[in-house]
TrEMBL record:
<feature type="binding site">
    <location>
        <position position="130"/>
    </location>
    <ligand>
        <name>Mn(2+) 1</name>
    </ligand>
</feature>
<dbReference type="InterPro" id="IPR023696">
    <property type="entry name" value="Ureohydrolase_dom_sf"/>
</dbReference>
<comment type="similarity">
    <text>Belongs to the arginase family.</text>
</comment>
<feature type="binding site">
    <location>
        <position position="99"/>
    </location>
    <ligand>
        <name>Mn(2+) 1</name>
    </ligand>
</feature>
<dbReference type="InterPro" id="IPR020855">
    <property type="entry name" value="Ureohydrolase_Mn_BS"/>
</dbReference>
<dbReference type="GO" id="GO:0000050">
    <property type="term" value="P:urea cycle"/>
</dbReference>
<dbReference type="GO" id="GO:0005737">
    <property type="term" value="C:cytoplasm"/>
</dbReference>
<protein>
    <recommendedName>
        <fullName>Arginase</fullName>
        <ecNumber>3.5.3.1</ecNumber>
    </recommendedName>
</protein>
<dbReference type="Pfam" id="PF00491">
    <property type="entry name" value="Arginase"/>
</dbReference>
<feature type="binding site">
    <location>
        <position position="229"/>
    </location>
    <ligand>
        <name>Mn(2+) 1</name>
    </ligand>
</feature>
<comment type="pathway">
    <text>Nitrogen metabolism; urea cycle; L-ornithine and urea from L-arginine: step 1/1.</text>
</comment>
<feature type="binding site">
    <location>
        <position position="126"/>
    </location>
    <ligand>
        <name>Mn(2+) 2</name>
    </ligand>
</feature>
<dbReference type="InterPro" id="IPR014033">
    <property type="entry name" value="Arginase"/>
</dbReference>
<keyword id="KW-0056">Arginine metabolism</keyword>
<dbReference type="GO" id="GO:0030145">
    <property type="term" value="F:manganese ion binding"/>
</dbReference>
<keyword id="KW-0479">Metal-binding</keyword>
<feature type="binding site">
    <location>
        <position position="128"/>
    </location>
    <ligand>
        <name>Mn(2+) 1</name>
    </ligand>
</feature>
Amino acid sequence: MSKQTIALVGAPTDIGAGHRGASMGPEALRVAMIGERLRRRGFDVTDRGNLHGPLNPWQPPTDGYRHLPEVAAWNQAVHEGIYGELSQGRLPIMLGGDHCLAIGSVSAVARHCREQGRKLRVLWLDAHTDFNTALGTPTGNIHGMPVACLCGNGPAELTGIGGHVPAVEPKVFRQIGIRSVDDPEKKLVREAGMDVFDMRHIDEVGMKRTMEEALAGIDADTHLHVSFDVDFLDPSIAPGVGTTVRGGPNYREAQLCMEMIADTGRLGSLDIVELNPAYDKRNATAKLAVDLVESLFGKSTLIR
């Protein structure tokens, strides 16, 4: 069997965020040697460079959305880029960029799964549920809305990316590490029946049981997509994000999470988003993210 080929796809924009700087995320991950570290693990890694899209105009919201045309353009580029890699049999890693870009990546993975007749499971590792809409958002920042848009709840420019509305059903998501949800959003998440493993759940039953629950039912016919928002991690270990929320998983919990995903052998695609070098200390958050990604691709502490 030939080596699995990984394709790194940069999406350098903070178009959907409330702080500037996530546009520098792809370069920070490259500086932290993401490609080299995965090559050392025996993968064939190709860096596709960066996708292109409009500059961030940094304008206030229009009708409840900030930068909607630009967000749509970036997500269309991401959709095509990620779908192209999957079609060639490669495992794409999107180097973000802010989390609005998951509209493009997850819709591409969903399209690929529909064509291949495979089931999709999305692990959403995040401090936030990202299920906001124009009605509930206090900011209009679209990085708080990708899950809602993917589930068909949002503007047509975003829900229609990939040509299938909704791109996915809420039941494909398992959200892990959640600890900050706006009040109107809570109602929407409950109504959608989303599986949310918040920090209280992790505190009560531990990361091991949480991951067993989140990974239950995955089989050989399942494509597993991980959308890793770096603000999933506790800010004491990962300061380099725009929206820090205290009380996230610590280093060991995050490692266990990644190792248990790796154990499934089903990882098919990955987003790394919301890394913001402007808030970081000597690229420490990028290095930590790369360390965790190595675990996601099978590095474990002991020989098992």
